[in-house]
Design a protein that fits this description.
Distance between the termini: 39 Å
Strand order of the largest sheet: 6-9-10-3-11-12
Shape: globular
Number of domains: 1
Oligomer: single chain
Number of helices: 10
Structural class: alpha/beta
CATH architecture: 3-Layer(aba) Sandwich
Largest sheet: 6 strands, mixed
Helix content: 25-40%
Radius of gyration: 18 Å
Length: 243
Amino acid sequence: MLELKNLSFSVLDEKGERKEIIHDLDLTVEDNKLVVITGPNGSGKSTLARLIAGIEKPDSGSILLDGQDITGLSITERANKGVGFAFQQPVRFKGIKVFDLLRIASGRKLKVSEACGYLSEVGLCARDYIMREANSSLSGGELKRIEIATVLARNCRLTVFDEPEAGIDLWSFQNLIRVFQSLRENIKDSSMVIISHQERILNIADEIAVLSDGRITAKGSRDEIFPTLIGTEAAQDVCARLK
């Protein structure tokens, strides 16, 4: 279980003045739940994701994983505790094969058959991808699914996806939704947080938390929160975005 308690974070603006991005925020993500954090642009969603991952450090407050305070831990230390993070734009690795990425992510001597299994779970033909380089020859959608496969290989306690729909086409987005639906159906002894304002991602959540001006303004089940967001900036139709 993830717990954020009285979390605050600020940055210096171009005038050298402190600007608060996250303000005294409380949020709990229970085990075996898919929670989508949404909100208008500039509400602090991606900043919150980076705070959870350890990329940014809060000014005050605490972050707990399974009751243990991880606020002061580095990205690597959090990863070792079971926190996974998927960027908006997956990193491309010239000269590194997909199999190598999966092996490194797993932290063990991974068999090729196991690696192929992870690729199959995200809808990729393992034979076509296992020995390819994770470089610019792959599309954004392919890289997103390979990144998710590395998350599966790590067997994380908590995985955070920061706007996974960013930079991909409609076909890739539709495949991404199917992957997330499969992950949700098979979630066990872990939890997922997705930062997104796309309606189709919101619609597969167990719970939705609404972030506005650095504060959680609403949180509840999908059936409670989703109808209140239709047509707002916090819930956008991906088809309209791609027209």
